[in-house]
Amino acid sequence: MVQVLNQEINLSMLTDKQISLFIKREDQIHPFISGNKYRKLKYNVLEAQEKGATTLLTFGGAYSNHIAATAYAGKTAGLKTIGVIRGEELVDQWRQNPTLRMASEQGMEFKFITRIQYRDKTDNTFIEKLKEAVGPCYIIPEGGTNALAVKGCAEILTSSDKDFDVICSSAGTGGTLAGIIEASDPSQRILGFPALKGDFLKKDICKFVTKENWQLITDYHFGGYAKVSESLVNFINNFKDKTGVPLDPVYTGKLLYGIIDLVQRDYFSPGTKILAIHSGGLQGIQGMNLVLKKKNLPLLKV
Ligand SMILES: *Cc1c(COP(=O)(O)O)cnc(C)c1O
């Protein structure tokens, strides 16, 4: 089982508030695959192989960490990969996109569909038509979340992590958080920081968990998925300078911004030991910098 370092974060504001903060460096599992996407794919790839599948098919947007991860995981396992990508306009522009270029270099084939078609991605008739078009394949949902993904994410926590009072993780589809909740001790508090706007998440997580020692902190999505502000970029650049830990702008930057803000506001009582999960996402920085440049915003340091 892959295990990573918990890195202690030394910042004077943490010492002042008597809070100890560690970051689990899941980003160090792989230079391109987000740590949590690696965990989510592990048992899905095994299941695909057991079923004799030769192709993995999944869904994602142009900068998706999950698309990048599936391309790498498929290549490593000797499976063909197909990415169904949101945005028909990318058909002749995808080579400008660093995520899709990397995925293609790993052998992934793309099928670009319109944003409207993309809304049907979980619809049975849509999936059946896709299967007819591409042939037999093992289908992984957008974001990679299913029961096998949750099983993989439960391996993020180890027995020595029981020492932490609070465990914080970013949440997109909630699969990662669900795995962490299931692996946690009931005495620990699990806080999920959604990177997206919307109320669907709580219900989705409840499908996978039985414990009740968790809640969502919904104040730090910065306007929604992949939305980034100047203050967030500055925070991420500062955090890297001061701690040496690189954060991604879509998930872990918002997570750490939220944790530090909550510490500042005395949300945690003195003496609290916090573990934040660095789920990865660093491959997305390059693509985000292209977007920031267009908007004349400061860039993320690489
Ligand atoms: C996908 C992703 C998440 C969110 O994971 P979910 O299981 O969808 O909630 C968090 N962090 C990073 C870096 C990701 O790539």
Automatic annotation (TrEMBL):
The keyword Transcription does not apply. PANTHER family: 1-AMINOCYCLOPROPANE-1-CARBOXYLATE DEAMINASE-RELATED. Residues 18-280 form the Tryptophan synthase beta chain-like PALP domain. The keyword tRNA processing does not apply. Belongs to the ACC deaminase/D-cysteine desulfhydrase family. GO terms for molecular function: D-cysteine desulfhydrase activity. It comes from Arenibacter nanhaiticus. The modification N6-(pyridoxal phosphate)lysine is found at K37. This is 1-aminocyclopropane-1-carboxylate deaminase. The active site is at S64 (nucleophile). Its cofactor is pyridoxal 5'-phosphate. It comes from the Bacteria. Pfam families: PALP. Keywords: Pyridoxal phosphate.
